[in-house]
Amino acid sequence: MATRRLLLSPVSCLRRTQALGAPAAPGLRRGYSSDDSFQYLHRSIVPTMHFQKSLPRLPIPRLEDTVRRYLNAQKFVCLYNQNTLVKRTFVQ
User: Fold this and answer.
1) Domain count for the chain
2) Which ranges does the record mark as transmembrane (predicted)?
3) Which of 3, 24, 36, 83 lies at a CB distance of 3.0 to 4.6 Å from 78, suitable for a disulfide?
4) In a domain, 46, yes or no
């Protein structure tokens, strides 16, 4: 019996208590979707797209500005040789 207790790891004990229905630790409980308090959007009687037509239209940015922003963002993501390849692709 004593050797069996030595072989049990904390993980196996945790699994056993969860299988028996006991909470893993006091104060912890599983959160299922029965409680909607975690939702970001609140419930409203106003439809989602109700004010869409009254919003101002945003201008479409110029292609050169978009490419410049994209290449600046790629500097930190790509390696140097990949970055030069991406620049060459946009220059053509």
Assistant:
1) 1
2) none
3) 83
4) no
